[in-house]
Amino acid sequence: MxxxxxxxxxxxxxxxxxxxxMVYLAQHTTLERYAAVKxxxxxxxxxxxFKDRFLNEATTLAKLNHxxxxxxxxxxxxxxxxxxxxxxxxxxxxxxxxxxxxYPNEKFVIRIMSQILDGLSYAHRENVVHRxxxxxxxxxxxxxxxxxxxxxxxxxxxxNVNLTKTGTRMGSVSYMSPEQILNKEVDSRSDIYSxxxxxxxxxxxxxxxxxxxxxxxxxxSKIINxxxxxxxPEIPQRLKQIIYKATAKDxxxxxxxxxxxxxxxxxAESLNHEKTDNTMKSSELIRKTRLISDIQNVEILxxxxxxxxxxxxxxxxxxxxxxxxxxxxxxxxxxNESANVETEKIVSKTNPDTKIQIEKKAEDKVxxxxxxxxxxxxxxxxxxxxxxxNSWQNMNVNGFFNNLTDDYHYESAGGVKRNYSERxxxxxEIFANNRFINITTSNMNIEVNGNYAEVRYRxxxxxxxxxxxxxxxxFLRKENNRWKVYKELSGFE
Length: 493
Known about the structure:
This protein is α+β, with helices and mostly antiparallel strands. The protein is built from 13 helices and 17 strands. The strands form 4 sheets. It has a 6-stranded antiparallel beta sheet.
């Protein structure tokens, strides 16, 4: 596309790429204004799901006008290509800044975060939840002005947009809020959670949940169950409580708005400035006087402690001698027999039922832990099934087949059998002919046995050509700590 002219914009160079397409630097042929042109990959242009998501980004940006959000210039459909033309910001993403360790100090971090909170606060007032806040979607441009990028999966909370509904998990897993992982309804507090994780990363240098050794399942489990490690010395003490509140597992315990988040951030910065200013006002003479005084006080205290320690040592030696002598006298005068009698009394009083109760409590604790782990497994298995169904409903081929094993096979009560590749070909055929698919489920039951699970449920399925209700059985196994479907039965009671 280099040197091609589209809607008065000449494509100059490729400046980036993503999962959905490429981003080019362009210049208006008349106004000489630079722009960033985002082009949807041609293979996705005919896919309704990706096309709708791309259009969603354009329509979302069109209604937002804020200095900390990139500006939309135009949306163009030309020669089968879909393009978003938007403001070009020359700078570094926070992701690059973290990787290169370029951010200079705490003041810089708070200033950038405050700007993004301003932009998000405005978006939330316009009923837009970003849902994919992360360092790579925040760019720092000239004069350290930061802007939010990529509203591709943003949710319009008060509209009829049905691109991403409850039960559809989208976004970057390691920045997701627990409610996103669990496929629950999200609101502005999910963005606040992602901002808290981003703030943590700016000080630590890495995402707390983004470890090469972790599987996607383990990452999701950590986000749901484990708080951030706020004992890290890299995090300024006055900011730890702010990060803790922003990343609370329960949305009700987080900041209720970006404004609250920003107020606490700026208060922490003001406290830091005040502390620094007061220190600077102290004269060299005062510091020297305090130093001499401190040295003298330490010497006096040290001498006092030495005397006190000697007195305490002598006291404890006397007490120990008395106790030792009394013990010798007690046992030499028949106390040993009395002690044995008392011991026998204690043993005789030991109730076998008490031992049983203790053992039962230990067993109950083990069962409770196992049940908790089992509930977590069931919740994640349910999320896998929901993700599978939502991917099919949204005609997302990749999303659907990412949840299947290589030896997956399908069988219906009517005698239809398909292996993985046959199912894939059928999916493309169905998606090409059906413009609307709706799936509802009920009576879902999940049974887990080690690394294997069976899910049974009732399903209603409707499209432009089919309207049916049937029973479904999915058989899953855990591969590399991730649950996948290896067998699917349809219509078998």
